[in-house]
Fold this protein.
Amino acid sequence: MSPPRSSGHAKLRDRDVSSLPEDRRLVLHVVFDTNTIVSALLFASGGLAWLRQHWREGGSIPLVSRATAAELTRVLSYPKFRLSPADRIELLGDYLPYCETIKLLEKCLIVCRDTNDQPFLDLARSGNADLLVTGDQDLLALTGQTSFLIETPNAYRQRTCGTEPAL
């Protein structure tokens, strides 16, 4: 069972980060859904491109499971993206090394209407995530029903950077 969260706010967890500057010692553990990651990786001038630098610099610890990594790999191979196998490996290399892999998954007690989204809820539960970042309406509809926050990429940017995306 996950520890309770107070006031509906994500708790920040202490990690062994003593070598980091004081303002970086508390890091959010975040599950990013596939569309969020793909947008960050593929669209260098897009609204989510900032996430690449964010996770590279340790602004969050993305969580990944076998199921969510497989989903990301599958989506990157869609013909519409026209990515070669080498391109896909390079893009995965810009994300997966920054992730914490969660191996044993617990089922989230909250069930998503779209069964394809359930692995993200299960990962967030199993990894004791602070947040699930998504633009998916089926997941956003579950806001307030989980031990972790569920919010849009724009809300996450406001939370972590204090800035709104440029329009």
About this structure: The first strand starts at residue 13 and ends at 14.
